[in-house]
Specification:
Layout: E1 8-9, H1 12-32, E2 39-45, H2 49-65, E3 68-74, H3 80-92, E4 98-101, H4 111-117, H5 129-133, H6 145-156, E5 165-169, H7 176-185, E6 190-194, H8 201-205, E7 210-213, E8 230-234, E9 238-241, E10 249-252, H9 257-260, E11 264-267, H10 275-293
Parallel strand pairs: 1-11, 2-3, 2-4, 5-6, 5-7, 7-8, 8-11
Antiparallel strand pairs: 9-10
Length: 295
């Protein structure tokens, strides 16, 4: 049996806090120079509790760094056409630099149609086809927020990616697919993408120098699936309910942390790992959108 290694915990809360401080300083500098202060607009449809919590965190983050923000709320009965008209208004509002529509949306509204309606240069979630495709260009516009956050963690912890074997478990449009492209383009890594159709998943994950898991299935990755000394990035966050938890529920990652951590060189916790970086990346994108349109 391989000897356990002392691992480094990747602290997403600390890195997120560092990024917010850097953004705050830039906003102060822009104010002093008479330049435009970033303005983020948020649309929330319906009263989903988790979505409301996410939006509250985003509003709080805007206040922390000194951004202007506009909060727009609509009932879940709003028609797709009416929502599209509101998006058009925000697209035309030149004071708004960044713009997000909080997901998920009610079933009668097409996520793809709504996403593609957002102006790419204001799409600070990085969801539009133009921003997704720009990942493989030499000058990407606004990067998808969660993958951007993962890349920032790797960079700030000085984790080498060039030439290393990276395995991404999960091929979603939001995380797995764009992150795999970013690891190839920016990270110069050798990347394997696994998904629900992959046979013998463990045979791939055991080869990973850097293992990223983003499938939303608590504990799917166990110690026997991880190479000794691997870097483990857990993007999955699932609310698991049960009487054994103090609040009646707990947030669990896709990686069995207690089992896997002793084998890892670096590992993210859940919560407190990748999660805080998504909002930090959203703020970075909003600042970049502002700088591109108002240097």
């Amino acid at each position: 049996m391989a000897e356990a290694t002392p691992y480094t915990l990747i602290d997403g809360r600390k890195i997120s806090s560092d990024i917010k401080k850097e953004i705050t300083d830039k906003v102060i500098e822009r104010r002093q120079q008479g330049k435009k202060v970033p303005h983020l607009a948020i649309i929330l449809v319906g009263d989903d509790g988790a979505s409301q919590t996410y939006v509250d965190h985003k509003v709080k983050a805007c206040k922390e760094v000194g951004f202007h923000y506009t909060m727009m709320r609509f009932a879940d009965t709003i028609s797709e056409d009416k929502l599209m008209k509101h998006i058009d208004q925000v697209n035309r509002d030149e004071d708004v630099d960044g713009f997000i529509v909080q997901l998920p949306l009610p079933q009668h509204i097409s996520v793809e149609r709504i996403t593609e309606k957002i102006r790419p240069d204001k799409d600070v979630d990085g969801f539009t086809n133009r921003n997704f495709g720009s990942i493989v260009s030499k000058n990407p516009l606004l990067l998808p927020a969660t993958p951007f956050g993962v890349m920032e963690l790797l960079k700030r912890y000085k984790i080498e990616t060039e030439g290393r074997n990276c395995v991404v478990v999960g091929a979603s449009r939001l995380v797995g697919a764009p992150l795999s492209m970013m690891l190839v383009e920016e990270g110069r890594a050798t990347v394997t993408v696994c998904h629900k159709y992959t046979k013998d998943l463990a045979s791939f994950t055991r080869q990973a120098d850097i293992l990223v898991v983003a499938v939303g299935k608590p504990g799917i990755v166990t110690a026997d699936m991880v190479k000794q000394g691997a870097v483990v990035i857990d993007v999955g966050t699932t609310r698991v309910e049960g009487p054994q938890f103090k609040n009646g529920y707990a947030l669990k990652g896709d990686v069995d942390f207690n089992e896997v951590a002793p084998k890892a060189s670096f590992i993210t916790p859940v919560p407190g790992g990748v999660g805080p970086m998504t909002i930090a990346s959203l703020l970075l994108n909003t600042l970049r959108a502002t700088e591109l349109r108002n240097p």
